[in-house]
Amino acid sequence: MAGIDLRQLPKEIFDKIEMREEMDVTFWRFAAENYSEIFWNTVQERADITKENSLILSTSGQQGVGKSWSAISIASVLDANFSVDKIFFSYNDLVHNRAKLKPHSCVILDEQTQSYGMDSHRVMIILNSIKEQLRKKSIHMIFCSPVLHEEAKSSMYIIEVMFIDQETQEAVAALKTREGHTLGHIRIPSPLKVLADGESLQTKEFMDAYEKKKDEHLEKILGNKNVDVFEERADAVTKSKLFKTAEKVYVKKLGYIPRDRIVQIVNKLFPEYHAGVVPQEIAERIRMNKEMKGQWNLPGARKKTK
């Protein structure tokens, strides 16, 4: 399968990958080597319920690049009965519910907070203990977080999601070894993408239930009763004068407002959030809503250089 032509990517993605290549001596393989077939063959093999095995993965990536729904897509292949109640937003929830998990199922630990790892030694001891228990019961686990933690070293693969290919409805990720060496890239379909068999990995009802569960978790950890549904906050931002001014400036030139600029606007309108994960989440809702409604063009391809 062909590699990735970086010259065809939007400039913001091209620059991010180019910077990573300068910092990581193995990252050049990201664009050059396509490991999609090898990776999905491994996932299919581990999903075989006639064998006693498990697959432990760590998935990372910036807010909005598709790391959570990538984890959901992989989990849906590993576990034919994957459900929202197998997604946990804190290790405490996973600890309390681990006895209910059945062999050959898959769980996701989806870390949405940036405070995770404050007590990293204790957390890592607990997580490694949980992973050993799950492995013995042939239960798959996908750890999903904005940044990699020490626990990633015990994962079979590390998946760093780099960007979403809107045209193909796939997340494009770097596939790495537990030592952090890049093997190449893999493509992970959106849970709602209609595949070759005419089916999708998940339903819209599932994704809505996931977003609702995530919102409830964020409200709980923020300890702020005034944090209402993020869709409502996103709608309030798009109606603001600041946002409408930004649209006039950026959409004409780029076709969309850069994510960092949206986050700045959210922080300006809602300073009570003190930055953190909430403005990032609202920014992602805004961007996705705009693109889905066709009000913003998808980021254009970067012009080829001679």
Outline: globular
CATH architecture of the largest domain: 3-Layer(aba) Sandwich
SSE order: HHHEHEHEHEEEEHHHHH
Radius of gyration: 20 Å
What average pLDDT do the residues reach? 82
Low-confidence stretches: 114-120, 300-306
Distance between the termini: 25 Å
Q: What is the total tally of β strands?
A: 7
Give the fraction of residues assigned to helices: 40-55%
Strand line-up in the sheet with most strands: 2-3-4-1-5-6-7
CATH class of the largest domain: Alpha Beta
> What percentage of amino acids are in beta strands?
5-15%
Kindly identify the CATH topology of the largest domain: Rossmann fold
Q: How would you portray this structure in words?
A:
With 306 residues, the protein is α/β, with parallel strands linked by helices. 43% of the residues lie in helices and 14% in strands. It has 11 helices and 7 strands. The chain has a 7-stranded mixed beta sheet, sandwiched between helices. The longest helix has 19 residues, at 204-222. The protein is globular and about 60 Å long. The chain starts with 10 loop residues before the first helix and ends in a 14-residue tail after the last helix. Residues 114-120 and 300-306 have low confidence and may be disordered.
How is the secondary structure organized here?
Blueprint: H1 11-23, H2 29-32, H3 36-46, E1 56-60, H4 67-78, E2 87-88, H5 91-97, E3 106-110, H6 120-136, E4 140-145, E5 157-165, E6 170-176, E7 182-189, H7 204-222, H8 230-238, H9 241-254, H10 259-269, H11 277-292
Provide a brief overview of the structure.
By secondary structure, the chain is α/β, with parallel strands linked by helices. The chain has helices spanning 11-23, 29-32, 36-46, 67-78, 91-97, 120-136, 204-222, 230-238, 241-254, 259-269, 277-292, and strands spanning 56-60, 87-88, 106-110, 140-145, 157-165, 170-176, 182-189.
